[in-house]
Design brief:
There is one protein chain. The protein is α/β, with parallel strands linked by helices and 427 residues long. It has 2 domains: 312 residues, Adenylosuccinate Synthetase, Chain A, domain 3 (Alpha-Beta Complex), CATH 3.90.170; 95 residues, Adenylosuccinate Synthetase, subunit A, domain 2 (Orthogonal Bundle). 32% of the residues lie in helices and 20% in strands. It is built from 13 helices and 20 strands. It binds guanosine-5'-diphosphate, 6-O-phosphoryl inosine monophosphate and magnesium ion (MG).
Amino acid sequence: MPGIVVVGAQWGDEGKGKATDQLGDRVDYCVRYSGGNNAGHTLVVNGERYALHLLPSGILNPACVPVIGNGVVVDLDVLFSEIEGLASRGVDASHLLVSANAHIITSYHQVIDKVTERFLGKAKIGTTGRGVGPAYSDKVNRIGIRIQDLFDESILRQKVEASLDQKNHLLLKVYNRRALDPVQVTEHLLSHAERIRPHVADVSRVLNDALDADKVVLFEGAQAHHLDVDHGTYPYVTSSNPIAAGACVGAGVGPTRINRTVGIAKAYTTRVGEGPMPTELLGWEGEKLRTDGAEFGTTTGRKRRCGWFDALVVESATKANAFTDIFLTKLDILTGWDKIPVCVGYDVNGTRYDTMPISQSDFHHATPIYEELDGWTEDISSCRTFSDLPKNTQAYVQRLEELCGTRISGIGVGPSREQSITIHDLL
Ligand code: GDP
Ligand code: IMO
Ligand code: MG
């Protein structure tokens, strides 16, 4: 005991970083298992704001070993600049462990991410442009570059050449862009080899040994259930498996090692990039949620699309991830509304749905059916127990709990570490 996974229950930016940090110094290992630096996890600790993209949030707890699993795609330039940024603020990353099997995001993945998006035009996904999708494509195509390849120069040269051979044809002939020089790319990758070497580990073995020794291992999801390439709103998804089961694949632990799966859900809904979002509010209400919640992307600075809480979205994530608990974030942002609508069903061309439709086309045409709950005006940001909350706020939480199908064990009432309410202890 215990392996615990933290998973976004909506479309990302639910506050996974803060929820992870919440478990604090009781966590021995904090593991990123999927995604790359498309993630942006913000933590506010002792009044200081930290935005992490690649490093797990546990890095801010000195007693916790930060780990990057095989399922992550690593941009080494970003990794080292993040490590340097933290070092300048007194945060040590010398104990970071990185899987030898993690794939590397190279400069050509970033170029391809951007040109493909431009080429797609109106059909674009709205990616973060960090090269994440192309790096995963290469992994699945078996032409990816892994961390361990940095330590065999001749293999690395061959792999970069083979991978770029095809891509340069595409860049030149289809996208009308400059070809990339495999020698330059290889030299740049090699320049990181000695720096990453001391961090490279057999992550699967380390974590399994830690679990055998009763250590607490927290798997910190990036992105979210509905951005999962298999379970999300495809094709408007990321290219990996952020769901709880992804922790097993992306870190090398068996499913029996996971004791808790915690869904992180925002008290309303946000989404960045393209794709369906039935409760999106395009008028002043969406603007108000965006302003009150400071809903601008941590990674790209893009405006997040905002809307009311969609219980069908969170309920389907609860089912597929077997959430044992939900941590409800940003409840403080809903203060001041007279009535708060919550989506409890969809109307799709005259048919009512009480769960998310299986067809993506139906989901694109879903109109929310709302239930209106009473709002509250009291400032809740200094509440520290459930009973401190106004009655209407308690009723809002209790109704979401019923609709989502699992208990709400924690509530966020502000961005800082201490602005939380624990209802059930997660450890
Ligand atoms: P993540 O990607 O899931 O880690 O979430 P982000 O960090 O991208 O976005 C969540 C934002 O909300 C961050 O700026 C957090 O500091 C902030 N935040 C998290 N929990 C709360 C909360 O309970 N209340 C408020 N007001 N802000 C929160
Ligand atoms: P965190 O961990 C919100 C979205 C992008 C785009 C889609 C594909 O901070 O919650 P990609 O660059 O991954 O190929 O983009 O996924 N996306 C996120 N949205 N939060 C994230 O991470 C995201 N990571 C990717 O906006 O719609
Ligand atoms: Mg984020």
